[in-house]
């Protein structure tokens, strides 16, 4: 039996693409605007930016709309776009202590330095589906928009007065932040109480660049943090949960120190001044996970801390990341060899890798499968009746041409 | 008396009068300026001037954002940030700008505004006014944001036995 190469299906593929495009354009509902997606579907936009590893709400929203709400597909589109961009350089190194908080809670400690600031969160609200009439929701939205419009008009008028030559203290905006917006860390409190293993390093190693060199087991911690920061949220959460309650059990249930959502500045060097200037901000979620050390070779009189930081507002991801960071640190400290947990984090949590591998299964595998069929037949027990064998062989030989996708 | 009231009314003119500080502050405010007013002011800067020369045509690309984390005090790459940068020569002076996102027109306009100020061109006052309005908007937005956030600070009450 031989194989015959075949090609085809291009017209069908083009027609399938046209169906996708037409559905996107011809849906009976009104066109979904980018600003609507950014404002009203913010968590999805943040996830796409985080998993796409590119801060740009507009690109993320466009991708989310093009992917018709499939977050992993949207992150794929953003990664593809990102791969076409020139790398203009490196922003100035920013210290995570600079996070200007929109939300900050410290579950481990009632009175940390700075406030317990709940911010905007549904954490303490019952998960009840709001089935209020649409007309009523629209009426409330219109009312809120009108109030916001009035406030904006008043503010613009105020701005106009301020630009008539009379300077105000607003001209110095950005020169300082309220202490409550940049609170101290619980980690520093624990250090001052001598309750924390001090892992701070003086050698300041360069950060691994996993965009150019894929992270593989044995990679430095900076590569692990980068990989988790852009990992698929569900994959990180699942890996954390599997290690807490599943068969792996590599992770303790930690106590959370800092849980923050806030802004970090993006600073670029001004080429004519030789000094950094702030060109904008990104929003991030940051988590510290406090681990109760209990290993035979560990300092049981102290705690250790895992760290999570990702783009946008995504607390599930940052918590899982912080938990996995400390688990990896402890796991790797036990031996020289990379453990299965490190392999799982580095090799199986990237959404693009995982979904790409999975999606490829839908491509034609005619030849592969035909070969498997042949092997099965070859391994079948020798038939008892010679006549039956001849009949069967004739049936198999009847279709010797196999299309190749 | 505020810091600004002790100095002239140009953005960035505080106790630190050095031109570099003023230009750095201007770059930050032009990066944050609303797009349409920025384009309008750039148009005004071009009135009566030769067309600007592009030293660096508006270029969209990625900046790598590296963060120092607090556990080991080491660096790691968080993600890329989409930005657009531009550089021009206008009225004989060089202007540079960078804005977040894909915004070629905005980055070019900001670079023209920067050059207008460096050249002390006739529309400099309009650029200064735009920067002041931007500073004021940013301060207002921040103030309003904090007014909304502050009520979410938890005030604990001691439970008596």
How much strand of chain B?
Answer: 15-25%
Strand content of chain A: 5-15%
Order of helices and strands of chain A: HHHEHHEEEHHHHEEEHHHHH
Task: Tell me the series of helices and strands of chain B, N- to C-terminal.
Answer: HHEEEHH
Category by helix and strand content of chain B = alpha+beta
Separate helix tally of chain B = 4
- Give the number of helices of chain A: 14
Question: Could you explain the architecture of this structure?
Answer:
The complex is a heterodimer of chains A (405) and B (161). Among the domains of chain A are: 10-82, no CATH class; 96-122 and 182-203 and 213-357, no CATH class. The two termini of chain A are 19 Å apart. Chain A has helices at residues 10-26, 34-40, 42-52, 57-66, 71-82, 134-162, 186-192, 221-229, 233-245, 315-333, 340-348, 351-359, 366-379, 386-397; strands spanning 54-55, 87-90, 94-95, 100-105, 255-270, 275-292, 303-311. Residues 163-175 and 395-405 of chain A have low confidence and may be disordered. Chain A has 405 residues and is an alpha+beta fold. Chain B is an alpha+beta fold and 161 residues long. Chain B has one domain (4-141). A three-stranded antiparallel sheet of chain B has the order 1-2-3. Chain B is extended. Chains A and B meet through strand 1, helix 4, strand 2, strand 3 and helix 6 of A and helix 1, strand 1, strand 2, strand 3 and helix 4 of B.
């Amino acid at each position: 039996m031989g194989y015959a190469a075949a090609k085809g299906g291009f017209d069908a593929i083009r027609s399938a693409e046209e169906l996708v495009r037409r559905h996107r354009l011809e849906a009976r509902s009104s066109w979904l605007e980018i600003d609507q997606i950014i404002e009203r579907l913010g968590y999805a936009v943040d996830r796409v930016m985080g998993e796409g590893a590119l801060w740009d709400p507009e690109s993320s929203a466009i991708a989310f709309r093009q992917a018709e709400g499939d977050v992993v597909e949207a992150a794929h589109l953003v990664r593809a776009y990102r791969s076409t961009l020139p790398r203009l350089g490196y922003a100035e190194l920013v210290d995570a202590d600079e996070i200007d908080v929109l939300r900050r809670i410290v579950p481990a400690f009632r009175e940390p330095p700075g406030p317990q600031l709940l911010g905007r969160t549904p954490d303490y609200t019952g998960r009840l589906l709001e089935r209020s009439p649409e007309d009523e929701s629209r009426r409330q939205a219109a009312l809120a928009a009108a109030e916001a419009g009035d406030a904006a008009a008043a503010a613009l008028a105020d701005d106009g007065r301020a630009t008539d030559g009379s300077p105000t203290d607003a001209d110095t905006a950005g020169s300082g932040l309220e202490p409550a917006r940049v609170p101290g860390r619980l980690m520093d409190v624990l250090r001052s109480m001598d309750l924390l293993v001090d892992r701070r390093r003086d050698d300041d190693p360069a950060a691994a660049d996993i965009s150019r060199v894929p992270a593989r087991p044995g990679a430095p911690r900076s590569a692990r943090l980068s990989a988790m920061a852009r990992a698929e949220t569900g994959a990180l959460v699942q890996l954390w949960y599997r290690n807490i309650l599943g068969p792996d059990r590599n992770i303790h249930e930690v106590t959370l120190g800092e849980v923050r959502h806030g802004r970090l500045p993006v600073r670029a060097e001004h080429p004519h001044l030789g000094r950094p200037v702030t060109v904008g901000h990104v929003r991030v979620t940051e988590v510290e996970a406090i681990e109760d050390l209990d290993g035979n070779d560990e300092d049981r009189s102290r705690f250790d801390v895992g760290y999570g930081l990702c783009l946008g507002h995504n607390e599930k991801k940052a918590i899982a990341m912080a938990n996995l960071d400390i688990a990896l640190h402890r796991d790797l400290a036990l031996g020289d060899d990379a453990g299965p947990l490190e392999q799982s984090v580095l090799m199986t949590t990237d959404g693009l890798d995982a979904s790409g591998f999975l999606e490829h299964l839908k491509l034609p595998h005619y030849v592969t499968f035909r070969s498997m069929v042949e092997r099965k037949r070859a391994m079948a027990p020798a038939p008892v009746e010679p006549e039956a064998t001849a009949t069967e062989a004739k049936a198999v030989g009847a279709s010797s041409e196999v299309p190749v996708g | 008396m505020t810091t600004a009231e002790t100095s002239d009314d140009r953005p960035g003119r505080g106790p630190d009068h050095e031109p570099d500080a003023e230009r750095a502050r201007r770059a930050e405010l032009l990066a944050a300026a609303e797009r349409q007013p920025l384009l309008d002011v750039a148009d005004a800067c071009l009135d009566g001037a030769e067309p600007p020369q592009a030293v660096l045509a508006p270029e969209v690309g990625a900046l790598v954002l590296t963060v120092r984390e607090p556990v080991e005090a080491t660096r790691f790459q968080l993600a890329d940030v989409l930005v657009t940068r531009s550089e021009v020569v206008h009225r004989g002076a060089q202007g540079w700008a960078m804005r977040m996102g894909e915004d070629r027109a905005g980055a070019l306009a900001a670079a023209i505004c920067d050059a207008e100020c460096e050249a002390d061109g006739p529309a400099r006052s309009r650029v200064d006014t735009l920067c002041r309005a931007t500073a004021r908007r940013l301060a207002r937005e921040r103030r309003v944001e904090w007014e909304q956030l502050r009520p979410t600070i938890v005030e604990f009450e001691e439970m008596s036995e």
